[in-house]
Every structure is written in structure tokens, then in C-alpha cells.
Amino acid sequence: SIVRSLTVNEDNNPDRLEQTITFELPASELSYGTGDITLEASSSSGLPVTFSSDYPYVLITGNVLSLTYEGLHYDDEATITASQPGNDEYNAAPNVSRKLRVKHNDE
Q1: DSSP class of residue 90?
Q2: Closest CA to 75 of 25, 27, 26, 29
């Protein structure tokens, strides 16, 4: 007897529609103490878009981005990613990432 496994790629189902994300940052640079920024993105499907950051001191709650740490550090760069995982009708949209320069205090 022969045993074979079959993997079904649910992430790209030909029976589902494709979608894209439109996402631009409202600022390319954010300094501590300047306040939060509101992130806006949309998917071509109309499904909700979620946001994430690869930088430990960038907190994203819903669509509000804030910096959570102050102190003397070098300036850094964070990658903010917008994603939409799809549903029964739409495949997942390709993620869209933008760079945000994080400016630190001199104190």
C-alpha cells in the first residue's frame, strides 16, 4: 500500500475572490510626547483591516498608534503592517507595510 498526504492551501482558494489593501501612514515620523496617530486603511472587499507593528514600543489599539516608552535612545524605524485575513468569499489580502521613524527624547 502507498500512503500519501494532501495539503490544501486555504490561503489562496481559486473559488474565492481576490482583495487588496490601501494603506498610507498619516505621518512618516513620530516623536515621543507628540500624541497618538490614527491609522486608516481599507480593503477592496470592504472587510475590516487590522494593524500590527514590529517595534516593541509602538502600541496599536484598534486603529490608534501610540508610543509607550520614553528615554535616551537612538532613533529607530518601525514597520507598521495592515492585513486582512479574508473570509468564505475572499482570499486573504497581501499585507501592506509602511515604515515609521520613531524619534526619541534627548533627555
Answers
A1: B
A2: 29
The rounded distance, in Å, linking the Cα atoms of 59 and 42 is: 20
Query: Which grid coordinates belong to 36?
Result: 497618538
CA-closest candidate to residue 28, choices 96, 76, 99: 99
Q: What is the pLDDT of residues 62-81, one digit of tens each?
A: 999 998 876 666 678 899 99
Q: Among candidates 71, 77, 68, 78, which has minimal Cα distance to 104? A: 71
Closest CA to 67 of 32, 37, 100, 96: 32
Instruction: Please report where in the chains the cell 489593501 appears, as a residue.
Output: 21
Cα–Cα distance measured from residue 26 to residue 49, given in angstroms and rounded to the nearest whole number: 16
Please, are residues 100 and 78 in contact by the beta-carbon 8 Å criterion?
Answer: yes
